[in-house]
Design brief:
Two copies of one chain form a homodimer. By secondary structure, chain A is α+β, with helices and mostly antiparallel strands. Chain A contains 15 helices and 31 strands.
Chain lengths: ~550, ~550
């Protein structure tokens, strides 16, 4: 493609209103144009990359037997009423009325449509399993669209839905999808992790999020470099420490701690380290008071507490409730002679002679030992993991990184099939609800995530798998006829094996080089003054490795290096 | 692809509510599923064919330098206000409000968006010409959606827009597009004609419609088989007859014609042929009365009258107006001593001694001759052409056929660039509005048009260029293990060179054959009883040519015949 006939409106200035690196580079490289908040036109470079990503997604879906369809954008309200989501989805669901005053949603996801589609066509378990997918523009009325394509209101998704007559089949497809997603995100060049996740608005139990590691993500991922281990910090299990040899238990002692209302203040007051203190909290678990002790430098993880107690609702007891039940203020609580059951974190379980509140305002005990001074109702993992601790799979020390969610796989179970009567006859002729899975890839978001992790301070560095063109041919001086002829001829030759962008514009060399770095194709071939000696310069965008190559050897060079 | 894992819900019964053959076959072949009036899910077969059509469109657009982009579905109202179409487009424009109560249109076409996009980025004529296109789902709230994908409310379009600094450039791209469209419709196997057309709501002057000839079209096309000639009957020029040798002019005579108020009645009364009569009409052309005579068997074409007079508005005079100005009733009008200018059709110009009304109720003249009995203010083409007449290009006798509009090319000129301030600096540094063209292909409609013209009474017959699969392998008896193994092996071998659908379902042979005819792949390979002797049956879907082929020769046979 000749660049003069392409539409790549690059910018010299860095756009000030862009909130993320990918957003900034996409604007600067002339890849997108905002038409309204969170609504963009995808310009030629973007469209080429999207087509490449879509093709990778399509191949991986086909490889696991996924069949492509295309469902409508406009969803009749009636179907969303059946699933209960016309109300539940809230104001993120875009809605409209047609000329006959009938209500429609603009599809943000297609569970209702696909379930309605199949309930009319699917009669017997013999037609199962079945996996259908589509790649399509979707709509979500984000309250605060931002980060360019990362959080838009109109965006491209691949969504797939699978249908099964038994759990084993659902599990098998879920595994296939998990692997296909791993292939997709590897192929497009993302450093990603699959993490267990909450299922959010869609509902269901088994689910993983595929997170591209990135500094601008909204979730924190605990991961190791040594294995594929990754978990949302909300879920990441803490290591259970080994019990130490029994320490000598010193005598329990009550000490005055006037004004001490935090672990930091206590450590200071007692002249000990923060990690030698404990923190006592009282929570209401489904209405019942419990006390939990964690180490002073740790942070309570309410999701783990809820999971431990298999509770529906948990909340911190209010100051008033605490004073009512414990007869002391929150800063002076402790387990000794506590009137509620006491649970301790694994890490407290290996401590001895530690300080706690005395349940008397202004007093703490020191040299507390569980077993001797109070009985524990249970020991568990009640806290957030911290960086540097061993990962659950023991592969190494966990690191933290923010992540951009680029994909998610769900086991929906019978949530939609039961709500919307998608049943089949099983082997015994009984009508049973169909088991479903749903699987999403944020295609336009993936593009942004790729840029977030493939760039330098001059611009984008496209992975070869998704690059809009393979090679950028540039004439340094467009008035040099010899160079221009050589470039035209290279353009033709290389064009037979590579996707080539040829910068034939009448711009200064500096502008061309800056644009070229910004656009970030894997290889650049510069036809400059060296052409007098039959030489061109070839430069790799990622390694910046540069070579003077005889023009007759360009194909050879690229064959060896590309 | 194994058919058991594909989703092709064919029907045994012919759907009763389908209004066109393509609609019927698409339902019966399990290709589409209606979700709401005019809104469909495209099932796997349809999606494969759409992908093929889209790829052909994309290639032809790329061949003429078109660059692919993707514009949003949601269009801010403000842009449609600028062009004046927020009001003008009427209730076919689907509209919605976002959570902040801002108005958006769901794009039926993208002139506003692309003009707004370019006005910020385009500064100089040097960046022109430029052609951008997209393939996208569009929305139009049809009052009466019907014919399946032919008139839907949500449909797939390829729309392209070109930008120019001078007419010559616009004309060149228009010609390129015209040729690309011809290639597209030829490649997908349509019998089409490019016809001059009115520009409808989009506005502009130069425009052609690409019509797929079909019995269910809504427009009537006059065309010849001998050339590419085609015109909407509203535009098709009538042949100008050669003047005959002067006939002897008989004496003008007034005759009583009581109760005669039509040409048919007049012919009957005078015992002459209808083609020997004339029809006199009085019209108001931009408010001025004129009289037009055409032959008795012809029909007045108001569009031609408007074009002849270059008039803004034309209408038939009311009975009251006629009696006021002519002192006679509509059935008795004539040119002799008429008080308004008289124009005659070319075909009347070669008549002599013809009857006309006498401008006295109940009386006609016979033996009227223009020149002698009245002066003509002009002679022109005022009527619709009829089948069998010579075409304007003299290539042959015109035939009539209905046509489905599958594409349209427009020269928009400066309509949008002036309304929305899309200007560039020209060679002389003056700011000038950009000339634009726009070019549409109805992708989903094209699919329907293909079926309308490629089928027999058993089902669809896909052209090879768009077929969802090349070859259908069928085992007649799925319990025959030898046949099944042979089929599996063929599936693998042929799969390396062809797209193969393998009907591995446990269905009766009759069901499989019926489905196969319905789905209509170019070649069918049946592995039946003959496999005992190593033979399979290969049948071409179009010619129905059938051959017994040794299983080792299948690839050879297809190589020679496909």
């Amino acid at each position: 493609m000749k660049q003069s006939r392409m539409f790549i409106p690059t910018m010299r200035e860095t756009p000030q209103d862009a909130e993320s690196l990918s957003h900034r580079y996409m604007l600067k490289a002339g890849m997108i144009k905002q038409m309204a908040s969170g609504i963009y036109t995808y310009l030629p470079i973007t469209k080429l990359v999207l087509n490449n990503i879509e093709q990778i997604v399509r191949e991986e879906m086909n490889n696991i037997g996924g069949v492509e369809i295309q469902m409508p954008v406009l969803h009749p309200r009636e179907l969303w009423e059946e699933s209960g989501r016309w109300q539940a989805y809230g104001s993120e669901l875009m809605r409209m009325k047609d000329r006959h005053d009938r209500d429609f949603a603009l599809g943000p996801t297609h569970e209702e449509i696909i379930t309605a589609l199949l309930r009319d066509e699917l009669k017997s378990y013999k037609k199962l399993p079945l996996t259908l997918f589509q790649i399509q523009t979707k709509f979500r009325d984000e309250l605060r669209p931002r980060f360019g394509l990362l959080r838009g209101r109109e965006f491209i998704m691949k969504d797939a839905y699978s249908f099964h007559s038994n759990e084993a089949s659902l599990n098998e497809t879920y595994r296939d999808m998990y692997n296909a997603y791993s292939n997709i995100f590897s192929r497009v060049g993302l450093n990603y992790r699959a993490v267990e996740a909450d299922s959010g608005a869609i509902g269901g139990s088994h689910t993983h999020e595929f997170m591209a590691l990135s500094e601008i993500g909204e979730d924190i991922i605990a991961y190791t470099d040594e294995s594929g281990y990754a978990a949302n910090v909300e879920k990441a299990a803490c290591p259970v420490p080994e019990m130490m040899a029994d320490a000598e238990q010193r005598a329990l002692e009550k000490v005055a701690t006037p004004g001490v209302d935090s672990c930091l203040a206590l450590a200071d007051h007692l002249n000990i380290e923060l990690i030698d203190t404990t923190k006592t909290m009282v929570l209401k678990v489904d209405g019942e008071f419990v006390m939990i002790l964690i180490r002073g430098d740790h942070e309570l993880n309410e999701i783990k507490v809820r999971d431990y107690f298999r509770a529906g609702e948990i909340e911190f007891a209010s100051d008033e409730e605490i004073r009512g039940v414990m007869k002391a203020s929150p800063g002076s609580l402790g387990p000794v002679e506590a009137s509620v059951p006491v649970y301790i974190d694994h890490q407290v379980n290996v401590m001895s002679n530690y300080p706690t509140g005395a349940n008397i305002d202004g007093y703490h005990f020191i040299n507390v030992n569980h077993g001797r001074d109070f009985e524990t109702a249970g020991t568990g993992d009640f806290r957030f993991i911290t960086e540097g601790e061993r990962a659950e799979d023991d592969s190494g020390a966990v690191k933290f990184m923010k992540g951009i969610e680029v994909g998610q796989v769900f086991q929906l179970g019978t949530k939609y099939s039961e709500a919307m009567n998608l049943n089949v006859l099983d082997e015994n002729g009984r009508s049973v609800p169909v088991l479903m899975g749903c699987y999403g890839v944020g295609v336009s978001r993936t593009l942004s995530a790729i840029i977030e992790s493939h760039h330098d301070d001059r611009g984008i560095i496209w992975p070869k798998s998704v690059t809009p063109f393979d090679i950028h041919i540039i004439t340094a001086n467009p008035k040099d006829e010899e160079a221009r002829n050589a470039a035209e001829s290279l353009y033709e030759t290389l064009g037979r094996e590579y996707k080539v962008l040829y910068d034939d514009r009448k711009e200064r060399a500096g502008v061309k080089f800056a644009d070229s770095d910004l656009i970030g194709l894997p290889y650049r071939v510069v036809v400059g003054r060296g052409i007098k000696e039959g030489k061109v310069e070839i430069k790799a965008r990622d390694s910046e490795e540069t070579a003077e190559v005889d023009i007759s050897q360009v194909t050879e060079y690229l064959k060896a290096n590309y």
